[in-house]
Amino acid sequence: MAQKVSIDSSPRQTALLLGAVALVTGGNRGIGRAIALRLAQLGAAVAICGRNAQALAATEAELKQSGLLVHSQIADVSRSADVAALVDRTQAALGPIS
């Protein structure tokens, strides 16, 4: 079950990564999810991938609450074709990965 984490989001902190594009593999749960949420709190547009569609959709919805751009995609990073497609679609949706 996803756990809510409260992190200080002062205005200075929330703009720290404004304009950046982050790609987080495994960003749909666990440590990857926490990293994706923190990057969004710091102002980055975030792309996440994972293999579980339900967890991916739930994390995507939570990320979209930041008001920033979000891209999610089912991908298995052990497959090079999935990784190539993930990078291409992320950059098409959000811009160059920072």
Brief write-up:
The protein has 98 residues and is of the alpha/beta class.
Helix content: 40-55%
Number of helices: 4
Radius of gyration over all CA atoms, rounded: 13 Å
Largest sheet: 3 strands, parallel
Question: Which regions contain 5 or more consecutive residues with pLDDT less than 50?
Answer: none
Percentage of residues in DSSP E strands: 15-25%
Shape, per Cα inertia axes: globular
Q: Write the element-wise H/E pattern from the N-terminal end onward.
A: HEHEHEH
Distance from first to last alpha carbon: 30 Å
User: Which structural class should the secondary elements be placed in?
Assistant: alpha/beta
Describe this structure in words.
The protein is α/β, with parallel strands linked by helices and 98 residues long. Helices cover 44% and strands 16% of the residues. The chain has helices spanning 11-14, 30-41, 53-64, 80-94; strands spanning 21-25, 45-50, 70-74. A three-stranded parallel β-sheet has the order 1-2-3, sandwiched between helices. It is globular and about 35 Å long.
What is the secondary structure topology, with strand pairs?
Elements: H1 11-14, E1 21-25, H2 30-41, E2 45-50, H3 53-64, E3 70-74, H4 80-94
Parallel strand pairs: 1-2, 2-3
Features:
alpha/beta, three-stranded parallel β-sheet, 4 helices, 16% strand
